[in-house]
Structures are given as structure tokens and as C-alpha cells.
Amino acid sequence: MILNTLKLSVNSVRNSSLKRILIDKRISFCVLQKSLKKFYSNSTKSDEMDDKPVKYTTSKAHLKHKSYENFRFSDEEIAETPVYERPILLTSFAIFLIYFGILREPNDIDEKLGANLFDTVPELELPLIESAIQNYEMIGLDTTQLKNRFDELKQLKEEVEKTNNKTNNE
Known about the structure:
Layout: H1 2-12, H2 16-50, H3 60-64, H4 67-70, H5 75-80, H6 85-103, H7 108-114, H8 117-120, H9 125-139, H10 144-169
């Protein structure tokens, strides 16, 4: 029915570009119609297959796709690699390691990365020590050193706040 309406609309149109568009739509509709017929004719077979799980070792995929072929190089791929590829890679890697491990001099960024974290972000130490104390207590470990450091930091923080308040009041 839809195909007949498309035929009628193509015959009634006088504009050639519009006529081409309608012809293309009619062709694509015919292709769609044929593929739907094929799908519905095979649907009874696929419905029966969907009810049961497919065992991989008995399926067609097992014959076409071997798992061991996916995780290693085939003999053809090994033969295709150039002979000079391995020495070039090893030499490049060795030069890279020698430069970054031995020849390169430390710079400002290296010094910053090597600095103590709590010197860079001092407000971070109190919460971390507090959580470490809780974790040590849950595990049953000795927390005296952590508590001493926590008390020291609290005293330092209070002294800094007092000096800041004095300077702000004056």
C-alpha cells in the first residue's frame, strides 16, 4: 500500500529534483521491505535459539576466533617486523634511561617534588594525624607518638593564631 502511494506521488510530481528524492525513497523502502521479510521469515529460528544459552565451544564463533590467537603474535606478524626494530627500541630506551637517570641535573621542580608534603601544605598534617590516630586505635597499635605530634601542632597553631590576633588588634 505504501509502495503504491510512493509510485503515485512520483508520477504526479513535475520537479525533477523532488522526483529523484522520491525515487530514492521508494528504492530504500523496497530494500527495507525485503530485509523485513527476510527477518520475519527467520524469526521463528532465532526465537527458539534465544531461549537457551549458547555454549561457546559448540558455537561457530569457537571455530573462527581462537582465544590464543588474540593474545600472542602470529608467525606472520613476527616475520613482518623488520630486523632493525628491536635494536632501535632497545637503544632508544637505554639512552632515555641514561639521560634521566645519570646525566640530567636536578632542577627546581625536582627539589619541590622531593620536599616534605607538610612543609608545602601545613594545614594538611593535623587532619592526617587525627585520622591516623583513629586507625591505629582501631587496629590496636601504639598512638603515643602520633598524639604527641598532634598536641605539638595544636600548640603551634594556637600560638600562630594568638600572634595573628595581636597584630590585627594593633
